[in-house]
Fold each of these.
Amino acid sequence: MRDIRNIAVIAHVDHGKTTLVDELLKQSGTFTAHQEVDERVMDSNDIEKERGITILSKNTAIDYEGVRINIIDTPGHADFGGEVERVLKMVDCVLLLVDAQEGVMPQTKFVVKKALQLGHRPIVVINKIDKPGSDADRVVDEVFDLFDQMGASEEQLEFPVVYAAARDGYAKLALEDPNENLIPLFTTILNEVPKPVGADENGLQLQVFTLDYDNFIGKIGIARIFNGTISMGETVLLVKSNGEKVKGRVTKLIGFKGVDRFDIQTAGTGDIVAVAGFETIDVGDSLCDPVDPMPLDPMHIEEPTLSVTFAVNDSPLAGTEGKYVTSNKIDERLTAEMNTNIAMNYEQIGEGKFKVNGRGELQICILAENMRREGFEFSIGRPEVIVRIIDGVKMEPFEHLVIDTPDEFSGAIIEKLGKRKANMTNMVPMGAGSTRLEFEIPARGLIGIRTEFLTETKGEGVMNHSFLEFRPHSGTVESRKYGALVSMENGEAVGYSIFNLQDRGVMFIKPQDKVYNGMVVGQHAKGNDLDINPIKAKQQSNVRSSGADEAIKLIPPRVMSLENALEWIEEDELVEVTPVSIRVRKRDLDPNIRKRTAKKTKFA
């Protein structure tokens, strides 16, 4: 059996997981001297590169001093918590990264809780010690307190600590040591990470923790071998989480090293490999010895908390910008997404309408953004939280919200969140004129708050949240204060008309943009909706008047990104998503139907 170590890198968003994995790959000699390597090489998807976040957990392997180290880079966002949870079962130890300035954050708590429950003893890496505001000793104490709160055992509380600056490529065991390279971290991994238990002589036990898809070979399960060996072409038994058993042949066995994948003939206990040949393979399924099957326990995956309706675009501009516009195409694409994304699910709820359930707004936005880039055209409704009835009581998801803000804005934020049914649980001064506020808030209260929050804190506030639990429904939550400016005509917007309408509110359109009856073209300065005509041009006459041709000055429009639009809309509005544009519209385009519906709602 080879000498193997399996570790996962876990941390809050932006604490440097992917950068650390980059440096480990470089300094272990995995990349040859002439190989050109991108920054954050593990973030392979376009959106990951643009936003600088990790969305999918990915695995890599490095060889160091004759030991194969399998590393799994995980996402830090709460929306992708499902990815982290599964990965932790597949490894024998975790590297817990904590920012030397920010300290313990909500997502740190979430991942630590999961890791400790599985009995891992984390290696704590205090990262970004080169930051001017870093205070490594305080952060080590915070981590210790967190472990203690989470009920860690004596052994887990004796965790090893490494101080690092991943971006500059050095780590050390004491703060006064010189800044050289990552060897102290490699040494700690080899000494502290337990070797995989199990043996090649035992019957095969392999469990799938993430999925991939290839157009030629179909579904691929990325899995860890807990016992036994597996070979290319071997016949094995697939045991599903519901107990169903299917015999099949391994058509492809793939190994990992650095960023490369390559075909291998055989793999043994402790290895992380990709297996193809099973169409129905799913996360949590086991591959076993057909003679004496001993499947592993299926995995528990946290339920979705948010749902949104995807529907066929039926606006007057439908089909003019997208390549795939029919419900069949949308259905196919959603099915393909669910093949590899286990934290989401969907169901058809009507002609051309699909209800997609996920873990948060960001996760759903990323699916919509990917579809849009692939040429899809569709509409999305306002996100809604998934409500459950438990013992006859209506329950809704609550989130643990942590906000870091400059001191002078904390009053305004507490007031704003109070209207959204948030309950403040903690307030700590963080030094350097900054305060940390902690709240428990219904997930509904977080929908549409991000833009307002950034405006309120002049872009300096940082907001993070993670799922807490289901609690009894907490009544109505205040939503958008302003009404919408709705177009009452079809055509192209005209500069003269926009100029005259600017006093009414903030415009979302510019001259020559296509508009239609029922499309939202701006935000009204008051609380009610207003029908306007953005295509009315200046009447020409043959009489010259003084001041006739004064230059009109247009205020630049507010450009709505997909996330902004989803946050902004109300129940009676939709976001129209095409590869070219993102438009906001009313659900009912006819103003008379809208008035009737509004009346019914008011009296209901």
Amino acid sequence: MKKKSYLSLCFLPLLFMIVALSPACKKNADASGAAPVVKSVRLYLASPNDVEISNGDPKTSGAIYSNGGVYVAIVGNNLKNATEIDFDGVPASINAAFISPNNAVVKLPIIDYTKVDTTKLYSLVYKTPGGSTTFWFKLGPLMPTISAISNVFANPGDSVYVYGTNLVLVQQFIYGGTKISSFKSVSDGSSLGFLMPAATPTTQIVITTKSGTAVDTIKATPTITRISNENASPGDSVYVYGTYLKNIQSLSYAGAAINSFKTSADLKSVAFVAPATSQSGPVSVTTKFGTGTTIYKVYTPTYLQNGVIENMEGGWSFNGMNGWWAAGSGGINKASNDPFGWLTHTTDFDGVLGTNNSIFIFLNTGILNSGDGAWYGGSGTRLSSNQWVPVANLNDAPGNWAIKLEISVAKGWNGGALDITTDAGGGYVYRWEPWKTGTAYKTKGWITLTIPLTSFRASDPTLGEGMGASINKITDLLGPTGNTAANIYVHNYDAAKTATGFYGAFDNIRIVKIK
């Protein structure tokens, strides 16, 4: 045995020479003994959809962002028997079954670019028993983007976040014209945190990263979502609701400048006293970030403008409109003359339309039993047919149009819904139930109620009328011509009696384009 082993050892060099002369054996020897060579990196997709993402030059190669779920194919020589494959200095998992002498399919690792060694950025290090090679390609964050800011009105020193994508490897950050020296990215690059600087002389944001530069502006243009009373009398309190209502430079109501106003702490409303003006016009708020203006007009003579369904002034006919019939009562201020001879004189609803003598409908239902309430019998009123939306606009999005009316609830209201339906509505109902916030509801004089047409809903099998799906198109509610009659009434949907009746008035019912 010793003699045989000795002979075998003597013949080993000859055996290696024979293997070396064999092409197949030479290939195996290269895989284990020669240094690896990487020629390119491709996204691992079925041909012909595979895409080359590198040519060895990170300046001209394509770029990809690793989220740990992307596979790439490494193309080269001597790739068999890989011991380590690093991307941007982060090791990847190796599956020997996916590696051949000329190709290696590898899943990219999750790379935290807030902690990556920047000296290894854009590098691929491939190691085998035969050696190691470094190949450069742009594996890293793509161009940064900016999508939102957490709080544009933060006080100096408060924490603020810029949201977007690829907000890592930041080289320079300028917010509102001020260079920010200290900031922190989250690992996935979705936000960049910093402290609000003492001064922001401009609205520009510039974020420069290793991958490029994102330029945006601080977006805080004020918006107006609703107005508490669009037909207020001079001296009445008015609230404008919206967003970004801070550092207001100018405010106008119906074209009249408002010089004294107060912004709420949450920046969602501005309060002021209605000016003495007889003109109509939009409401406008201007800050350093821009101007928000209503597309509709407020104040008298709003009731004379297009879009009015009924303002009660002319009984069954006014300005060519059809009229109304009240199962409730028509009202007028006690100091005013009754043009019809049957209106109820009251001061409970003074102040509508900037005067004290406007005609209006009011309802005084008393306690309602379960299921009580209809447009007839003292619980409501009927509006005769009128053109709600111009025929040319019937294909508009329903959310672009709204019913507006002035309403005043003189006594605490708890129970029942104020319903609005149309003859052409196919069962769609709008239900107004503000008392459901927990206390009996009462207004301080007249307010403007805005009802987007999308607030009209079908019946739900469980929840009942007006609680199902919203209308899909305007004609669902108004019919093919946009001309329909309507009903406004109080109805009790609960199994028990209402805690109170409804004592409220409404006037100046109109259809307005709000978007």
Amino acid sequence: MRDNNKDARENMANEKNFKKSLLVSAIAAVTYVGYAGAVHGQEAQADQALEEVVVTGSRATIQSTIDIKRNSVTIVDGLSASEIGELPALSIGEALESVTGASSHRENGGATEISIRGMGPYLSATTFNGRMATNGSGDRSVNFSQFPSELMNKVAIRKTQDASLIEGGVAGLIELETLKPLEYGKQRIQFDAKANINPNQSNIDDPMAGDLGFRGTASYVDQFEFDNGMAFGVSLGYQRSDISQPESEMRSSSPTGSSRYACLNDPSVTNEGFYRESSGDCEDQIGGSSNQGYNTSVDPETGKAVSDGIAYAFAPSSNGYRQNDTRDERDSVFVALQFQPNDKTDINFDLQQSERIQSELRHDLNFANMKRVTPGVTAESLVVTDSGTVLNWAGETAIESNSETYERAEDYLGYGLNVSYAFTDNLTVSADYSFSETTRTENQILLRTQSDSRDVFGDSTAAGYRPLVAWDMDSEIRQYTVTDFDVTDHTLFSDEYRIRVDNDVDRRNTNEAFRADFDLVLDNEVVTAVRGGLRFSELEYVDLGSARDTYEIDRGDDESEAALLAINEACAIAFPESDFLGAESDGSLITMVDENGNVTGSANEWATFDTQCVADMVLSHLGETFAYPELEEKSANVTDVTETTTAAYVMADFSSALAGTPINGNVGVRVVQTDVESVGYRTPYTIITNADGTYAMQEVEGADLERVVAGGDYTEVLPSLNLVAELTEEVLLRGAVYRGLSRPDPSDLGYRRSFDTNGADDIVDIADLLDGVDGDGNPNMQPLTSWNFDTAIEWYPNDDTMLAFGIYHKRFQGGFETAQIVETFEVDGEIIPADFNITRTDDDTSSLTGFEMTATHRFSYLPGYLSGLGVKASYNYADSNFEFEDSNYGDSVVLDQDGNTVSENIGIIAPGNIPGFSENVFSGQVYYQIGDFDTSLIYKYRSEYFQPYTSNGTRLRFVGDVGVWEAKASYQLTDNVKLSLEAINLFDEPKKQYFYTRDNLGEMNSYGPRVFLGLKAKF
């Protein structure tokens, strides 16, 4: 029976955890507001009497966050390290999570993409030493896990912008910086070694990465001064990382058109849906159309959806589990060179290189026919929520033991040269060149084995090809009951053995840029400086698509069946992991029963096979040689986008007083012009005019694919104003107004089009030669722009204390919609119109309003050991009416050639909000630092958010609420040696992903804790 109070209990638990987190913030704020004012004068007097104290560790890092915020004109939150390699995080992603309003998306247990103030990475921009960074995902986010925190000196998030900043971040600009060696000013040699211990890894037999991972960092900083006044500085860093990222998953097929349908669930509808009269997929009609399900198109007679009023439920094509053995290898190099030939010239060169290989061995138990209806069983067993989520299901389905080997190689190279020259004491001119490139490849070998009516010995099986399977969500994870089939018996997986060899991804993303700037200081009481500059950049994104070779051995002859038996016996392996999903499940994952319902066994494992072994034997039997298929530079699958941007800005700094209150700030404008060229390749056709006046369209035999080009452009004016008022020496009031933009992802700007031709012999209108157009991409997709309004008040009573409160409002121009438009195509000199579905930026307006708070305080006035206690807490709340429609089951429109609405589709699922949008984001830290001992406990919370499904950015996927605990401790053994212990995800918080609706749990990822024991030596 379904527990109807389960969701309520979960929500109450999440709310209770969240309230505990807010309580930390409240206690911190109330405590230091009461004490700080009283003791501020005493501390000031004491500070005058004491010698200068060098602050290190957690206290120094928090003091840096206060300094960054206080000394900036724009609204900024960040942290820096007095010593390179002292950022308290395992990666830049974890470091950024501690910044007010920032939250991460987790992949493989670590922080990757960063959202700012509840707005996803699509609305943010990232610079590395002031330059744009690329990635291999096809979007504009940055995978922060590839940058080691040990080689960084500063991370910051600019919440408001001025005209000098590179455009591209409506939510904010993330800045990453390495140090400049001459500014660092001293020699330092450092070695940092960390042992990685992941408890879940110990459950895996003979894992790829071993039971103990390693992460080692070495860095060197030095300066050289010469008698002639020249100075040269060098900073070198290298990191080698070889760690595991264990992951256990409950899975379900993705929210794509062919993998997850809304099927009718009405007893009066018997030719399709869950009550269909004969076995078959629920989206197919008996004797009618296929792949239909709930029909969202509008019935012109009623003005409603064709299927309006009919009950439905979402049916995935498959469900199952995945056991995953992972290995993450990374080599990173950072170089910074600084040369000052005289006191007027400063030359800086920096280079960052990262080579990363992620390897995975995957073993899946897959229940393959979850859309299939078994009459008399499926409909009667179904339990469905009001949103169409299935909680209980039963039916006959094939059972698969599938395996994969997967490898992703991602290389990043970025470098830049900056030359600055002071013509006078007041005028400085600089020029900067930068280059960034990311390449990513992904290769897979996929094995599929299935249940069958006979086992590998040829004997009949009790359950047949499709055993009877039932599952429920009573324990918040799918657990299965299987009749007359033992999922741990290798010999029952006896249907054809199919191997797929995939060259799945080959991408290259480059960004080359040049900018020139001037900074003119004025002897003026109000306008103190004028700055301006030009920037030219060219982004290229090339994706060669994917290719697949398939090999299989089918049953049917003696030789093939002998081969299947030999492979089964040679390649069967023991299940690689103990206690699989034990922390997430209530009892056994699979219960096996006989035809009378008597329990015959239970298991948290299944029969598994060595993928490479099966692949080798299948290929050997077929006389084939193993090789990944090659991808072509010119094919119908290629996405080739070039985005050229020219920007110019001018900005004035000002300083004055208003009613006796000192004020300063800047005002400026940035003008951005962008051109997009997208190249595609398609089959060439010729148009034939027949003697009777009819037309035909035929492929040109033997011809190469023809190159076709499409594009778009836009020009935007981005004014900005930032203002800081010093109400008292301790209290600042800030305000900002600016207009920002966020560009479409490069992968969405492609131009892939292929034709479905009309083969009729009576075509008299050239426009009828095309039945349809397949493909994706919109090269003329416009940016999303917004007017942004921010104000904040900040109190700085001492070096360790800050209380800040800010309010912000964003008014967006443009949303995302799926539209069927009319595109025109030139074929053999003729212009042919055809319908095509695109995602585009519409003219809708929406808004986001929020507030954020930051509080930090150290209780240094408490007696004795208690003086080492400190707290930091931040909270961000946001509310938005932005709407992102799902392209399958959301609202959409059909437009004519002039852009007028012809018809609509009325969706059945509510739209998502801004990609990455979380209503609540909280981070709390309690630290204790006294003498050589430094420790902290951190809690990070993020409420649910919409994350577009990765293989198609127009499908809804929600990531559930998550709260993660982290702990860090270190001890300074000697002046030069420090011992540290760091741990993330202490209580094994899983990631839960929901497809289409917020209660339709499609995937759950369990990572387990990750622990690093480190030893650092610095000389």
Amino acid sequence: MTSLLDPDLRERSARTWRDADDDPPAPVVPDLLRPPAPGSVGLRERHRLLWERHALRRERARAHLMTALDPDRGMPVATSGTVVAYLRGLLRERSRLVVLVTLANGLAAAAGLAVPLLLGRLVDAVDLAGGDPAREVVRDLVLLVVVVLVAQAVLTYAAKGLAAVLGQGVLAQAREHVIRAVLRLPLGKVESASTGDLVTRVTRDVGSMSGAVRWALPEFIIGVVTVLLTVVFMVLNSWALALPTLVTASLSLWQVRRYLQQAPAGYLLEGATYSDINSTLTETVEGVRTVEAYRMQEGRRALGVDDIEVSSQAERYGLVLRNVLFAVMDMAFSLPRVITLVVGAWLYSTDAVTIGQLTTAMLYIETFYGPFDRLVGTIDRLQVGVASTTRLLGIAEVPPDRTPGEGRPDGSTLVGRDLRYAYRPGHDVLHGIDLTLEPGERLAIVGPSGSGKSTLGRLISGIHAPTGGTVTVGGVEVTELPLELLRTEVALVTQEHHVFRGSVRDNVELARDGAGEDGVWRALTTVDARGWVEALPGGLDTVLGSGHHEVTPAQAQQIALARLILADPHTLVLDEATSLIDPRTARHLEGSMNALLTGRTVVAIAHRLHTAHDADRIAVVQDGRVVELGSHDALMAADGEYAALWRAWTS
């Protein structure tokens, strides 16, 4: 692509994206975390360096955990105690179902564990009969085994069905909780958070939580019940033959406990690195024109590679933890087979156990291996789910940005006094603005980009609370009004909009449920949208959104304005609300809205100065201050900032 920028200007602009000094930036992954070159060190030294890298990755994971728990740094994560309490509450609400799942799985496991015991008895019967047992004995034992297996199949089917009902019910309630938490987030917190972090939390983390709730939680209950009952049956068969399995399993629990202590921080770090990858990718794709204009392709590509390398280090930490765990578990499963066989042969030679007991013990070891292995794997899956759940519940721990009071507006006069606002402490973007809006007045706010126009509009509409000064409507602070009441007083429509997947009717009625077909058509007619809506295949019932009918940006803004009309507030803040509509259509749209806007207070933040021309007063904002305030004619006569903007616009 050929750049249209002057080469010197392009280089100076691109340099602002780099470090201020000429020193090369520090590597995102320290050299200590990189393995030595093949053949450069011996096996012992390579092993030592591996564990040094693992220890350093562990410290990085712990450091991230401490940062993530800080509510002042981006979106927080919940503590493990919060997650446990939340899950306990979900299960307590379904206590009867939990009991049924546990009971059904216990009976199914008991039926399955009775089979090795019966086979042992069959072996003893054959041994006592010198290899020629009575047919009745064999027949009765075989029939009993068949009955037990059929009962096990029925009980397993019932247990799986109950577990599915439990998992899906918990998942549905957890998802509703997450959605409520997301919708409750203060807008300022959403805007300051990383896009990648939010996307990762509501996609990957929701998926991980879903898997943990639907699959891992029921499997955990099944695994615990099966393992405990297997131990009981092994001891009932022969405590001496059960001892090798119990000892090795107990020793392996030390490594399981160590893993459970270290894994959460690792999984949280993995989730955070995925957020960074998403953020970098989103910024690069959305800003592709800027990237190309300043020839920053290599820099953005390198940043993406760095994010992936950091993520790979986080995954290596979790991988080592799992490998060590699985190695210990394999030893715990393999050794009991050999030890039990040797000990059992000696005990059999001393007539301490029968050949049937030894057979049953070996079958139980194999039976124990499967459930115990699945239980450990389920715990690992639960760890991933718990890590994701801590990030999801962290959304719910974001404190509200306002506390509704008891006062109610007396009138609709909106007053701002000494308004100040800072996105970062100590860096005000508004500096002591005073503004009074009388009922029915139309005020236009104009000024250069970055002057604070939109920020002022957000303070007026109660989106943000001022860091200094007050905004009142009818004598009551706007941020002390309940949101449902505030939006009937003051409403904001920006150039940012969203069309939800649903019918045209549903999209418009979001502002006021039950508005009725006449109300929806009236709102669409007012914003000049009736024509294209009637032309849709299903009219008001046409489904919009992803995978369905796609609307143009202009049509999406018309839907947003129709919602505003149904909301029916007495004060409207339009933040460049018609910026995506062509000038002729926008002019016609604004003209057609005049009848509806009569008698309302209207604040129009616009870059098209014809909007300002029609306003009662015009506020010129520059560097966070109102430098001029008056009518179009008065400001033109003053020949100041507004007059210069008007001449530039009309030329």
